[in-house]
Amino acid sequence: MAERNGMVEKRGSGLWLTHLGLIIGVAFIFFPIWLAFIASTVDQQDIVRPPMPLLPGDKLFENYGRALVSGVNAPVATMLLNSLVMALGIAIGKIAISLLSAFAIVYFRFPGRKVFFWLIFLTLMLPVEVRIVPTFEVIANFGMLNSYSGLILPLIASATATFLFRQFFMTVPDELAEAARVDGARPMRFFFDILLPMSRTNIAALFVILFIYGWNQYLWPLLITTDPEMNTIVMGIKQMFPSGDDFAHWPTIMATSILAMIPPVIVVIGMQRLFIRGLVESEK
Amino acid sequence: MATLKLDNVKKSFGKTDVIHGVSIDVNDGEFIVIVGPSGCGKSTLLRMVAGLETVTSGEVQIGGKVVNDVEPMDRDIAMVFQNYALYPHMSVFDNMAYGLKIAKVSKDEISERVQTAAKLLQLEPYLQRKPRELSGGQRQRVAMGRAIVRKPAVFLFDEPLSNLDAKLRVQMRLEIKALQRELGVTSLYVTHDQVEAMTLADRMIVMNAGVADQIGAPLDVYANPATEFVAGFIGSPPTNFIDASLVDGQSGRIGVRPEHIELSDTGRITATVGYAEALGAETLVHLRASDGSQITVRQDAALPIPGEGETRGLSWADENIMRFDASGLRQ
Hints:
Chain A is mainly α. Chain A has two domains: about 1-70, no CATH class; about 75-285, MetI-like (MetI-like fold). Chain A has helices at about 1-40, 45-50, 60-70, 75-105, 115-120, 130-140, 150, 160-170, 175-185, 185-200, 200-215, 220-225, 235-240, 250-270, 270-280. By secondary structure, chain B is α+β, with helices and mostly antiparallel strands. The interface between A and B is medium-sized, with 19 and 24 residues.
């Protein structure tokens, strides 16, 4: 009973203290976002003249409307669309390619199977930034600058996802593949009918991670898109910053920042249930 | 329904020979059990019939056709796996229907065949459930249902009962036997459990280290084991082996089944009583012979149980002696 008493005691002050600590932590993290939101609802004058207001102003629709329709260099709506296409393209492309390559590596015996796996694995150690110059060269020679394919293709090959699916496929019992073979399923049929539905939670978890990865790409779009119409939102925000003595319209920039945050948040919240299941549960 | 013929079938993995040539003619509708200890190659043999392993040499014929190079799906077989291998994301109905769907059987016929199989296996209330919502015995039934709906020429069972608890195993054993009788499909059944082999088989193949030591009807095999291995493997508790020199001065060993030995004051040999296991209907008395070998005697529960450390004589009738030479072959 002593232990239980201890727990009851914690329910009193301890519980409140824990909650207080957490609330302060959340407020601390959330404060800059709140400031950004405030800044996106007021006038330029309110921002540049200290102190900064802490409550929303009345220019919310005006600022967001201006950002979406005209922006600074390009309309934010266009940039959002570009980012969406890029993030979706990268996430879906990566998942498709890694599923197939993991399928090949795990279920087929072909010469050089191990070598290929380790080659793929090796690229884990080479992030975009390391191979960015040769990649740029290749994309430029293909004439893919300022295009969606240029934005998406170089980022699609993914060692991480291939590795993840490989590990998952290896936990699928061999008998399942054999049962499907006896049932008359050819390899691709087995892949689509059995393996794919079984990996759906993994796919969902990866989709969330990869969507955000694609959405947050900064350096690559900065390099290969010179046309403002092809800017993505994350690099676009930076492009809005004034250089030198230029004048910057901070409310528009802040509205853009808030807008840039919304899609990843929607994806995370929308797929939260699947995402967590994919990370913790191994359904076999 | 069809006959099955193995003709000197061999298998090697790399340089290791795992099956050294097995031949058998299986009649239409016959239930054949392949039994042996783990690692004897019995599962490999079954998988070669299924087409999941290639045949190194020899021939596998199903219904008179050589199927060595035929894909599993085209061999007209159905297989039940040890861990059931049900598709986890599909309902029981879909699990059973999958093979038929691939074979492009019409929807009505699929539904009819699955319903029939479900009725046969008492699975009707569970058709919409997922495999993980079923008990072990029910999963086992689904796996069998999946085999039945395909109406194959040959059923292949790969240790289908070894994941079940003892009680369920006995029940499912009876069900499998009844089902096979009813459907009359030629069946090949792999197990390491000699009781399953004895009860299910029309004929059984006793495998030992890649060799079929003996092929025959269960009671024949029990009464007339061809090798020392078979005598020791079939029957529980196993056959006692005693050095012939101890008994009558000849070479080799003699085997006597526990139920054929009687404890007496004087006998062919004497042994010291170790301990006795009273099982209710019978008592197993474990003794140690003068050369140290273990001897088990199975006697009726009504007979007196000898005390530990006593020296008793062991006697048995001449017709119950099985003589084996040094290489383990029956003499």
